[in-house]
Amino acid sequence: MKNGSYFIPREQIYPFMNPGAMNNEEGLYLFWETNPETAQRILPPPLSLADPKHPIVMAYVVNIREPSFAPWYMEGGIGILCSYGDITGIYFLNLQLSGPGALTGLCSGREFSGLPKKICERIVVERTDHFAHAYIESKGKRIFKVEIDIGSYNDLSMEDFHRDKQKGAQERGSCLLFRSENTRADDGRFMFSAADLVNYDTVTDYLSWEPAKIESIIMEPSLDDPWAELSVVKLLGAAYSINSNRVLDISPIARIEGNDADNLFSYLFTGRWDRSTICTGHQRYGQF
C-alpha cells in the first residue's frame, strides 16, 4: 500500500478549497419568528436584528452529497437574520455535523470561516412524496425535529421573501461571522484579544425549491446545544431544496479589540464548545 507524506509540493495543493463548495445538497430550509427579547440578548454586538420587532430564525437540515473538500456529510444549522451597516445576512449560532466528511467539514469551516460547528451523533433527512421530516441528535438529546408538508408556505409573506428561488436561479448571500484571536491575560486567564467580523460571501445555484408548510417543530432543551432557546412565536414556512452552494470570499468588515473582543466570548462559547470545558463534574456514556 502506498504511504503518504507530511510534505506535499505546493502546486499539488492548489485544488484545496478552490473552490470550497457544497454541491448537490438536499434537504429542508425553515423559517419562523422568535421572541424579540431572546433574539436581542443572544445576538452579539455590533450586529443588529434585521427586524427587531419580528426577528426571523432560519434553520436547515441537509445532506451535503458532494462537497468539494470532503466525503459526504449531514449538516444542520440555526441562525438569526441580522445586519451590519448595509450588509444583511444570517448570523449562525450553531451548526451540527455528522457522517463521513463531518470532521473535515467542521475543521475547515471553523478554522477558515469562523463557523460555529460541532460534531453530533446523528442527522436524518427523509422525504416521501410531499411529506418530509428531519431531526438532529446531539449528546443523547433530539435537539431539533421538524415535519413539513410540501406545497405552500405557512405565511403568505414567504412568497415575496423567496420569490427569486426557483429551478435554475442563482442567489448571492451573506453570513456574518466572527473569527477570534486568543491570548493569555496577565492573570493567566484565557481571553479573546481581538476578533474580526467577516462577511462569508456565497452564491447558491438552485436545482429545486419547493415551498412547504411546517407541520411541527420540537426542540429538546440542552445545556450544550440550546436550539430550543430560539422558540417558535410564529411559523412562517419551509422549503425542500436541492442546490449547490460555493464560497466566493471571506472578507473582514470590522475589527474588534480589547474588552469588546473578550466580551464576545459570552456570545460565541456555546456554539463552539461544551460546558464540560468549564465545569468540574462531567461524564457521558454510550454515545458512540
From TrEMBL:
Superkingdom of source: Bacteria
InterPro entries in the cross-refs: Acetoacetate_decarboxylase, ADC_dom_sf
Pfam families for this protein: ADC (PF06314)
MF terms (GO), sorted A to Z: lyase activity
Name of protein: Acetoacetate decarboxylase
